[in-house]
Amino acid sequence: MAKTKKKIKVIRIDMDKCSGCRACEAICSAFHASPKYSSNNPARARIRLVRDPFEEIFLPVYAGEYTAAECMGRDKYVVEGKEYGECDFCRASCPSRDAFKEPDSGLPLKCDMCEDDPPQEEPLCVKWCLLDALTYEEREEEVEEEVKLDDLETGLESLVDNYGLQKVIDTVARITQKG
Ligand code: SF4
Ligand code: SF4
To answer: Are residues 11 and 60 in the same domain?
Structure first.
């Protein structure tokens, strides 16, 4: 496969600095509302906070790839004496939990690094994190060319996984006939 240069965008997370204020969830959901900034619902955010104030656990995790199957094994993590749940560090939108799913449709949500036109100076969750628990980095790497799925393709993939290809085709055909 051909190699190409790719800009890698990274959000570095410093759990020790996070206060659990959830400003990152609020701005992410507002930015992705339609129309933009018309509503604020953290359940629609592409970053979520694993939060347990009694244990002083504040862990921001941003949404990664959609996966059709949940993993078979689970891990527990102990970091600086605090125990984290089996799926706490996982970024996947997966069948075993509600995280990173559009609450109405159930379609997967994925962080798009606040893609915008013109581009944002930095991701909005980073900008709104006043405690610098989130910081933004870019670097270039040589990678194999990949086919990048956009939100629509990811959503369609999950619909096909859930309902089967023929049902999706039949439904689209019915809807377009109505129009
Ligand atoms: S905005 Fe920053 S401090 Fe607040 S919850 Fe998000 S990561 Fe933590
Ligand atoms: S980078 Fe943008 S899309 Fe990704 S979690 Fe942060 S605010 Fe949401």
So the answer is: yes
Parent domain of 15: 3-146
100 and 168 part of one domain? no
Ligand 1-lining residues (CB < 6 angstroms): 18-24, 49, 58, 60, 128-129, 131, 133-134
Query: 107 — phi, psi (to 5°)?
Result: -75, 150
The tens digit of pLDDT for each residue in 20-62 reads: 999 999 999 999 999 999 999 999 999 999 999 999 999 999 9
0.70 exceeded by the pTM?
yes
Query: Which stretches of the chain are assigned E, i.e. beta strand?
Result: 3-13, 47-52, 57-62, 77-79, 82-84, 134-144
User: What burial class does residue 18 get, using C-beta atoms within 10 Å of its C-beta: 0-12 exposed, 13-18 middle, 19+ buried?
Assistant: buried
